[in-house]
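Support request from a user on the community tier.

User writes: "When I paste my structure tokens into the form, the page sometimes reloads and wipes my input. The last time it worked, I copied everything first. Here is what I submitted, just in case something in the input itself triggers the reload:"
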């Protein structure tokens, strides 16, 4: 089974090809250029590096949010653009699950956190044990104080992972015992995690959709829409 993985939901972007649970190629950029410029060349490099063509793909796994509104849209649009002509199945994967995936072999609560600005984080909690990940919470936007209250419920080592780990750890370290940060190499989520998660789901026909059904998963309105809504409320 051959899966193309796409990840562009935050600052970095990456694309990879996975075949039968083996990463054949993965290309990653974090150079500050927009994903509209970098993502398709990364996809092309990943496909060529793996010696694959679109016709070889069984599915496309894409991180569909939460995250940067523009980044998520570009990733989803790229997946749809490749999948539609060839009628390839798509597998949307939560960005937070992609972030947590490197901890799958750890005995811990993986707290995947993305910096959502305004003293908030996007967060998803997962119980990692025996090479599996069990989702404990739905993806949510939490204030740091709300995150602290959520984590107090778990009597197990907690590892913060993602680009929100630093700010979360600084807030939590004196409030909750047993809280740690993942290695700095895991700050940026990777397309290979999305692809490996997607492969399992495609095999089990779980959360698989057509390209037409693939949509972004936002946890809050874009800033422009939030500001417009605020102005309307002030006028009322």
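"...and here is what came back when it finally went through:"
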């Amino acid at each position: 089974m051959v899966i193309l993985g796409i990840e562009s939901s935050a600052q970095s972007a990456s694309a990879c090809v996975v075949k039968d649970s083996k990463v054949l190629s993965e290309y990653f950029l974090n150079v500050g250029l927009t994903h509209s410029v970098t993502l398709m060349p990364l996809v092309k490099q990943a496909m060529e590096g793996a010696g694959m063509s679109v016709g070889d793909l069984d599915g496309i796994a894409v991180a569909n949010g939460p995250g940067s509104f523009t980044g998520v849209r570009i990733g989803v649009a790229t997946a749809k653009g490749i999948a539609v002509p060839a009628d390839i199945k798509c597998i949307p994967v939560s960005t937070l699950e992609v972030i947590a995936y490197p901890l799958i072999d750890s005995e811990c609560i993986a707290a995947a956190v993305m910096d959502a600005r305004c003293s908030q984080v996007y967060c998803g909690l997962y119980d990692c044990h025996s090479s599996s990940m069990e989702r404990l919470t739905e993806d949510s936007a939490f204030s740091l104080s709300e995150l602290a209250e959520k984590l107090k419920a778990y009597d197990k080592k907690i590892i913060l992972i993602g680009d929100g780990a630093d700010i979360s750890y600084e807030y939590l370290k004196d409030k909750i015992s047993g809280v740690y940060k993942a290695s700095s190499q895991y700050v940026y989520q990777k397309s290979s995690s999305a692809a490996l998660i997607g492969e399992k789901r495609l095999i089990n026909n779980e959360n698989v959709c057509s390209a037409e059904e693939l949509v972004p998963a936002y946890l809050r309105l874009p800033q422009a829409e939030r500001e417009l809504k605020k102005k309307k409320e002030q006028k009322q």
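Agent notes: The reload is a front-end session timeout and is unrelated to the input. The radius of gyration is 18 Å. Residues 98-186 form a domain with the Nucleotidyltransferase; domain 5 fold (CATH 3.30.420.40). Escalated to web team.
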